[in-house]
Amino acid sequence: MGTWGPGVFASDYAQDYLDELAELPEPERSAELARVLTIAADEPASMRDHDLFGAIILAAVGVVAASLPSGDNLLPDEDNEFEPQGWPLPQPAPAPLVALARRALAVVGAPGSEWRTGWVSESVSIEAGHTVQWLDRVLAGERGSGDVTEEPA
Length: 153
Fold this sequence. Notes:
This protein is mainly α. Helices cover about 50% and strands about 0% of the residues. It contains six helices and no strands. Helix 2 packs across helix 3. The longest helix is centred in the C-terminal third of the chain and has 18 residues, at about 120-140. The radius of gyration is 14 Å and the shape is globular. The termini are far apart. The model is unreliable at about 80-85 and about 150-153 (pLDDT under 50).
């Protein structure tokens, strides 16, 4: 398994999770996202017991964010590194799932978390912080959230 950058889906863990999610029947995908996000938000100390890593949680948050209007640049296209069998959420995520994704992001994306401290350079760590800030803005419904690589306001 490898990680190639601080992007939302930039790891083998994230790619594998997207594939697993896409293989589920469509009605079960939201429930699976809720399960993973609940563990991260409410029981972060048990994440490893459930074989969950920060990159997987970030991918789950990214799927929720991609379903929202300001997260549409996360949708699969010819430039993305992944091609799941079908995009996991065809409609905007319901408000409770969005709120849960935000809570999980606050845990996984917090300074000092495993995902935030695992980078080999300060510049990549800063990029990881930008990814977290951007996702939070998308989940908060801020219009004009821009690209994940833009500098936070």
